[in-house]
TrEMBL record:
<dbReference type="InterPro" id="IPR002852">
    <property type="entry name" value="UPF0251"/>
</dbReference>
<comment type="similarity">
    <text>Belongs to the UPF0251 family.</text>
</comment>
<dbReference type="Pfam" id="PF02001">
    <property type="entry name" value="DUF134"/>
</dbReference>
<keyword id="KW-0238">DNA-binding</keyword>
<protein>
    <submittedName>
        <fullName>Putative DNA-binding protein</fullName>
    </submittedName>
</protein>
<dbReference type="GO" id="GO:0003677">
    <property type="term" value="F:DNA binding"/>
</dbReference>
Length: 150
């Protein structure tokens, strides 16, 4: 059985989630995951080499290469076939996740790459240990595209 895939780290929230070619909205959509978009951004827009991109996303170079290849293939298909692109979901963690404890009012920044099977869902307050917290700042994007923090 293959091991569970690590979440890629994402720097910024999306500006746009949908691209639709003129007159082609009835064709089947191509879905691009957020970590795939981040790979494209880091490699093709920012211009980092693959080792730097992989480090920024918190994945191995081989995993980064697979993510980048999948993203490029999907984008090429969408452009050549005139299909809409929808950007959503995937396996990712937003960087700079800041929480406030409801119990004691402590504010802390969670580590961006949680280990183990919880993927950051069960981040306890480091001061009092409470699981009751609110996320400050961006309202979406903890691991795997979920927006709720327990």
């Amino acid at each position: 059985m293959p091991r569970r895939r690590c979440c890629g780290l994402i720097d910024d929230a999306l500006v746009c989630q949908t691209f639709i070619p003129l007159g082609q909205s009835c064709l089947e959509e191509i879905n691009i995951n957020l970590e795939e978009l981040e790979a494209i951004r880091l490699k093709d827009k920012v211009g980092l080499d693959q080792i730097e991109c992989a480090a920024s996303m918190g994945v191995s170079r081989a995993t980064f290469q697979r993510i980048l290849g999948a993203a490029r293939s999907k984008i090429a298909s969408a452009l050549v076939e005139g299909r809409p692109i929808i950007i959503r979901g995937g396996h990712y963690l937003m960087k700079n996740r800041v929480f406030e404890c409801i119990g004691c009012g402590n504010v802390w920044e969670a580590e961006p790459c949680a280990t183990g099977g919880k993927h950051g869902y069960e981040i306890a307050c480091p001061k009092c240990g409470s699981m009751k917290k609110v996320k400050l700042g961006h309202s979406k994007g903890d691991c795997c595209g979920n927006s709720s923090e327990g």
